[in-house]
Amino acid sequence: MEAQHLPLETSVFIAPVRSAWIRLLQFSRKSNHDGISSTWTFTGRLQDFELSEAPPFYTASYVWGENLHDQSTTTTTTIALESGTLPVLSSLTPFLNMVCAHTDFSAKDWWWIDSLCINLKDTQEREDQVKIMGSIYQRAKRVIIWLGEEREPDSDCTGVTRFLSRLSSLPPEFRTNKALRTKLLEKKLDAQWRGVGRLLCRKWWTRVWTLQEYVLPPEARFYCGRHSISRGKFKSAMYNIHLCSTGSGDYSNELIPRHAFDAAFNRRRIHQWYQRYNGMGLVALMAYLGNQSATDARDMIYSVLGLINEQDRRLVGTAEYTSSVEHIYAKLVRSFWNEYQSLDIICFSHLFNPHSGNLNPPETGGGKAVPSWAPDWRARVEFSSPVPLMVSQSASEYIGNFRPLGSATFKAKYDAPGPNLKRKANVRFDDNLKEMWCDGVILDTVEGLGGLEDCQTRCRSHVCRDSGHEVVQSVRTGQEEGKRADASLAIVQRITRSLVLDRRDKYLRFHALEQYVSSFLVLCHACIANDGCVDNHGESVRPIDELFAVWWQQNKHVRIGLKTMEQHITTTIAASTNPSLFSQIPIPTLQPSYYFVPPSPKLPACDNPESEDQDSYLTRFHDTVRKKSRKLMVTSQDYIGMAPCRARLGDVVAVLFGCSIPLLMRRVGVREAWTIVGEAYVDGFMGGQVERMIANGDAEVVKLRIV
């Protein structure tokens, strides 16, 4: 339900609808002939019902459109009621015509259509109806999802619903028969695939209100023109499209634009979760909807109230549209803390912040900013991920993620402060919700940052667009006093873990495999050995992995301790006689001819491609560097980790006692205050180690003022 499109008149609404009641609409149309042409007019009636006693009714899910009603023309569509005329959104008129002409429906059907059944000019009525919106859709006998006419300007979807029905009905052996899947990629089907892409690019898929309209009703059916497909068949079709994916197990753009596929596939996943758990975590859901939008930014929260669990619904409270967007977003953080005694929600400012590509920062004339500790849910992320951040780990009790239902178990957990310090966070919020205080430890200062140029990252930040992703590091002279001289192997192991965030699966459920060190060394050595080499045809030797090769060329000179990363690698390879280190691969040599694809650990056979527990090292590397856009980070004490791509030298790594994940923070203002830049992985400090540092006198507890 969009907020800023209001009916032209409210006289048809004789009285406000009572709490826990709804208005239902019956409508029909008749033809009018003037001797020259014929037009259609709609007539109908509105009637109030107590929701629990309402007759069976349909709901409609559709896009409101940019233009409401054109008052300068006499062709505005209306429904004639006894109490007056009810204006109809221009985007809704084709839907009403379809319903009146289709044999699936009759004039006796009752409908609940938000723009026609709610007096949106009555703020109290609007808030009351939003409060019971979830119950309305749950009690509907079916939602009719209107995707538009088959042929619309620049969007010809002729025959798409029939093609999707065909995809949904593929035989079971399709899922294990690669040859059968390959047939669907034949050129003769290109037109059908383009049509599917156009359908999934229509605006309905990106409007946040349409999600609960799709998920909650017991039945749902998509209509494109007069043709339709059930929700169940559509979900099957989307999964079979997923199985047609090519490449390294990640969805490619060969069939459908990635953003279009994600929007539809993610709704399939959310519906699965809702059916299993009957309520999801608010923050995980809002992050998963990071590529969706709403006309009123407050609806990024309120539009999913019907989908979330009872505890999160309680912390949100009643939908209200009188407070500012900034206040509501900050209030959500405070409510989250009050409910769960956790600040994990603040990690989402890593992605949802004023520097996002679709927002204009306040300093450049953009809108008012939320505090750095409050995610700005107005920001859009181009690629929606079921596990967008470390705080989205499967072990998270209050955040969670949208991993496949078959991947419920986990054995690893990030908990930087540990359980004891979490009880000593001393969190406090200013009354105006502009500032927050929390006790914590500043681990160290960032002294070196790796590069991400040409690494195809998903970063869309204004900051990174202007400053780039180049390697930056402080100047060191000589062998500085007090510098740690760790063994190269230990440093290589820390780098290896950092580049995969110490996890072996993208759902962050299990610790990284020890064999990953071997794979990392093979990748590095192949880059070293093949640098400048040519094959028998005079062509440059192809790298094992293009992305890793690009990353290596930028980051090999990053200093860690007294050596560069490349020097640590060559030292480790030269001394590699430890059988446990190279038990999975041949012992590397330093000969330029040494070139082979690094073997991955033996993985158990898995029939369901959505429930894999382990990924190859390269897959995990891609997830961290490309998808999550993390930079290699080295601190002044040579702690190694991964930082947000918009990190700077001089930023600090801190462990807030109220937050499971270390944070990169930046000092601002004349009074000592801090802003949050984003999550930080710090190897060796992800599981409560700071408590021991405090006990040993190696770290000091400070109260951090965050603005």
Which features characterize this protein?
17% strand, 10-stranded antiparallel sheet, alpha+beta, 5-stranded mixed sheet, Heterokaryon incompatibility domain-containing protein, 707 residues, HET
The biggest sheet amounts to: 10 strands, antiparallel
Number of helices: 22
Report strand %: 15-25%
Shape: globular
List low-confidence stretches: 4-10, 67-75, 246-253, 584-612
Distance between the termini: 33 Å
Question: Gyration radius, to the nearest Å?
Answer: 28 Å
Q: Which secondary structure elements does this structure contain, and how are they paired or packed?
A:
Blueprint lengths: L20 E13 L4 E13 L6 E5 L16 E4 L2 E4 L5 H9 L8 E3 L1 H4 L5 H9 L1 H7 L2 E5 L4 E2 L2 E2 L3 H9 L9 H6 L6 H11 L8 H7 L4 E5 L2 E4 H13 L14 H20 L4 H7 L10 H4 L7 H7 L8 H16 L77 H5 L5 E2 L6 E14 L12 H6 L4 E2 L14 H12 L16 H15 L15 H10 L3 E2 L2 E2 H10 L42 H11 L2 E6 L4 E5 L7 E5 L6 E6 L4 E7 L1 E2 L6 H7 L5 E6 L1
Parallel strand pairs: 2-4, 3-6, 3-7, 7-10
Antiparallel strand pairs: 1-2, 4-5, 8-9, 10-11, 12-13, 13-14, 13-17, 13-19, 13-23, 15-16, 17-18, 18-22, 19-20, 20-21
What does this structure look like?
- The structure is a single chain.
- By secondary structure, the protein is an alpha+beta fold.
- It has a domain of 140 residues.
- Helix content is 29%, strand content 17%.
- The chain is built from 22 helices and 23 strands.
- The strands form five sheets. Strands 12, 13, 14, 17, 18, 19, 20, 21, 22 and 23 form a ten-stranded antiparallel β-sheet that branches.
- Strand 20 and strand 21 form a beta hairpin.
- About 7% of the residues have low confidence.
